[in-house]
Design a protein that fits this description.
The chain is built from three helices and eleven strands; from the N terminus they run αβββββαββββββα. It is of the alpha+beta class. The protein is globular, with a radius of gyration of 17 Å. The relative contact order is 0.17.
């Protein structure tokens, strides 16, 4: 099913501001909150493998990083973080015009790390499965929690 901005807005989706490299995906959409949060984008020609007419794996990987990261930041209450590890399993192909979505799921959260996963869907078909780990930054100092040797050696993990 082909989606456009008007149809998404009518269905309750809102855009989110992206900056830096995240803008390469194009307009990002969200709907819901908490465990019902869904992040999406509409695949267009810039996202394709031109020889096959399918969504490029790099576009799906970038989107997975962004979508899970949005879920992690929301779970942290807006605290900054960075992807420490991300893996993606490609399952099927997405096509131009399809709404690609991900519902981030937080698996575990500690004071230093957040573990998340999600399925990427093209319309209602699973196209990829992603999971990753995000490093939490100390909001007061602007650097990763436990980022010095003494902090790592002396840090007690707080669930």
């Amino acid at each position: 099913m082909t989606m456009d901005a008007q149809a998404l807005a009518s269905a309750g989706w809102t855009t989110i501001d992206a900056d830096g490299f995240s803008t390469v995906v194009g307009t990002l959409w969200t709907r819901g909150a908490g465990t019902d949060l869904i992040v999406g984008f509409v695949a267009d020609e810039r996202h394709t493998n031109h020889h096959a007419g399918t969504v490029h794996g790099g576009a799906l990987m970038t989107f997975a990083d962004i979508a899970l990261g949005v879920g992690v930041v929301k779970a942290l209450g807006g605290t900054n973080c960075a992807t420490a590890q991300l893996q993606l399993q490609f399952i099927a192909a997405g096509r131009t015009g399809q709404l690609i979505t991900c519902r981030p799921e937080i698996i575990r959260q500690t004071s230093q790390l957040v573990f998340a996963r999600g399925l990427l869907l093209a319309d209602d078909k699973v196209v990829a499965s992603a999971d990753g780990i995000w490093k939490v930054f100390d909001p007061e100092r602007g650097k990763a929690v436990g980022s010095t040797r003494s902090e790592v050696a002396n840090h007690e993990d707080r669930p």
